[in-house]
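Input record, target 12 of the design panel.
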């Protein structure tokens, strides 16, 4: 079995022996985007987006941004990404619609073996990450391999997410845990603030 097939199937693989060179192919696009004046010229962002499996023209992403392959990244509509986002996309990273990410958010799909003797053979595994619709991930959050964050949840700044997060909750900490459900009372507060915003 080829190394790329092992990677896709979640088996141990050697990243230095992959039979395709998507890591090198995206380097120039990343460099051009990270040196660009994003607010004036969107061409470098559009070039970078062409490497993604899926994204939309309304994507907002502030440089710098880093990823490994690009082709394993799918991003839904109305994505807002602040500076310093890192996505190690050895496995699929699926981001839904209306997702916000603060600065220095990191998504890590690779898993290095706990056994030093195996790790020292340059072997690793990868597990997908899923972020569903309307999730807000605050600054300096780390999301580890195999995690799903369900629709409408908020992850507090500085959290390390090691397990799935259910729908419609505020979760934070290291390791990240559910703090409370985002209920109607919480929504009512924000609706009132929204009305004040419109009334001036």
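The sequence produced for target 12 reads:
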């Amino acid at each position: 079995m080829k190394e790329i097939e092992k990677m896709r199937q979640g088996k141990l693989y050697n990243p230095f022996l992959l039979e395709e060179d998507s890591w090198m192919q995206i380097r120039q696009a990343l460099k051009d985007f990270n040196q660009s004046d994003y607010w004036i010229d969107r061409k470098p962002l559009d070039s970078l987006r062409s490497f993604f499996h899926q994204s939309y023209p309304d994507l907002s992403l502030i440089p710098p941004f880093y990823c490994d392959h690009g082709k394993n990244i799918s991003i839904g509509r109305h994505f807002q990404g602040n500076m310093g986002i890192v996505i190690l996309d050895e496995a699929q990273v699926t981001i839904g619609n209306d997702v916000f990410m603060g600065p220095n958010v990191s998504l890590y799909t690779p898993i290095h073996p706990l056994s030093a003797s195996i790790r020292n053979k340059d072997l690793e595994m990868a597990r997908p990450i899923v972020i569903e619709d309307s999730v807000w991930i605050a600054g300096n959050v780390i999301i580890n391999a195999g995690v799903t964050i369900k629709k409408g949840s908020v992850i507090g700044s500085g959290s390390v997410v090691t397990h799935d997060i259910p729908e419609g909750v505020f979760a934070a900490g290291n390791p990240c845990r559910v703090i409370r459900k985002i209920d109607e009372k919480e929504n009512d507060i924000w609706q009132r603030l929204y009305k004040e915003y419109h009334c001036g």
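The chain has six helices and 18 strands.
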